[in-house]
Amino acid sequence: MKFRPIPILVSLVISFSVLFGGWSLYNSYALTNPMTDIVSNIDGVNDVNATFDPDQVTIELSIDPNISLRDVIQQIEVDGESVINNREVKYHIQDDSNDKIDQWWSSSLFDVAQAMENQQYGDIPLELEQRKQELEGLEVKTEMDDHHVYVQLKFDEHYKVIILPRTPAELEVW
């Protein structure tokens, strides 16, 4: 039996094209586009990019600094539950921080980490409010849900968004 390389090569190329093309279309039309549509329709969300892995969803957001981040995250998890489908969700919030906010947050991080480690979440807003006098004009907003503590810092036109996990073992990833 004589093998003909051209038909074998053509059939391999067509098979791979159909398999990877189908997977790409499924990923785009069944997962990424619906999730992007869901998140884009939330008030205060300016830009969104979602990527899906088999066990994780990564959502990159650009938001209005004056909205409640906790409400946005909760709405994403409720409205996108059918698309998320038991995957772990990671959020990356694009912010417009500057050196002053970053330095202030770095100096406050020890107190926040200590409160997180001791699971004294009510101490976080108190500590941040006490320290905000160190940077005149800084606005601090803290919120919490079952999974995260949200900190929003605003100074002039710059802002920083921090999502802290309420699981102590994950604190090292900040």
The structural class is alpha+beta
Radius of gyration over alpha carbons?
22 Å
Count of helical regions: 5
CATH architecture descriptor name of the largest domain = 2-Layer Sandwich
Largest sheet composition: 3 strands, mixed
What proportion of the residues form beta strands (DSSP E)?
Answer: 25-35%
Q: Can you tell me the CATH class of the largest domain?
A: Alpha Beta
**Annotation, overall tally of beta strands:** 6
What count of domains describes the coordinates?
2
Written as H for each helix and E for each strand, in order along the chain, the element string is HEEHHEHHEEE
Straight-line N-to-C gap: 62 Å
Mean pLDDT: 89
Assembly context of the chains: single chain
| Coarse shape | elongated
State the strand order across the main sheet: 1-2-3
CATH superfamily of the largest domain: Dihydrodipicolinate Reductase, domain 2
Summarize the amount of helix as a percent range: 40-55%
What can be said about this structure in brief?
With 174 residues, the chain is α+β, with helices and mostly antiparallel strands.
